[in-house]
Amino acid sequence: MQQNSKTDNETSSIVLPKKVDIIWNITKVCSWDCEICCVDADHVSRKNGSITMRTDSLENEHTFPFNADEGSIFDQAVRYKQRVGLELTLEQKLKVLENLSGFEVKLDISGGDPLSVTENTVVLKAASERFGKDKITLTATGAGLSKCNIEEIASYIGELNFTFDSDDCNGKVSRPDHYAAGNLKKATRFAEIGVKTRAELPMTIHNIDEQTLENIYMSLHELGIGKLLLMRLFPVGRGAFRQADTPSVEQYRRAINFLRKMEIKYGNPVIKLQCALKHFDNSGLPTNPCDVFHESFGLMSNGTLLASPWAMNSAGKPIDDSWVLGNLSSNSLTEILSTPKAQVFAKRANENFGHCKIFSFTNSMKENSFDKIFDTTDLLYQ
Asked: Which is the most buried residue in 54, 77, 313, 370, by most CB within 10 A?
């Protein structure tokens, strides 16, 4: 992409954020097949001496030979995807870090399961060295973390995030059995050596009753987990098929209030609200709780930069072209965010103050995609 010369007026009209908070789904491969996976991760397993990878809402199956001399099934699955251009090579991932120059960067390296892939530890280390460990968050599962040296990974990150949304550590409706238990077990190891930890709780009608919420909170409290992020069930990824599991406005309110009382009583974990829930606390908020473009972006495993980390459809692809800003392995962030398309987000962001732009987009009846994004159609606030 060539930079065109601009007049002083054109240059001064460009709005760029000073800080950027990027959730980087560095790979889509994962050993889990969660039914509400927001990125539609590729489920990788080994069957009869071959590697099987299920993609596109787990409906399409790809099978290729397993070679014991070429690393884990996840490493081999990623190399398969790299060969066909579906995921970045190690060189391209490191180029992404270079292309973030000029910004104050906070980076959440996520997936899929990021550390199921060996080379991603190299990227994690490089990101930590470039931006500082306090600016690096890792969001992983117990399965991926079990392949790594805990002390080494802890030296690269400021915080570990993990999903914990089942009180009995069994999958129930939306997660495989042992998923939650494995996540909590590994997160506890990080907490024990002084790493900040945050559990993430996507709330559904299956885990929003007070007894389940109390059990979840106490499990985290007893093992020293520092924060609990309360999240909405987004209509993206495989969650698009589970919208009947979405709590009502009053159920969300009751859950938040109940868990805040638990925090008052026990002290930790501290309750945090996802940006898409923060407008519940609207008391003259000085800034828009929706931080799309102001700070927050999503980065896909092929380098595609999205205006929101949630802007993915049921097959793990961009939910609409309007959300696609460019490719961060090919162009600098400054170049990408200076484009007229990106500037639409900068200049229209507050049109639907407080509303989550993903929910506004999916609920809007307007014809123009950009008008959908900035519509006031987030049902939680209507």
From this structure: 77
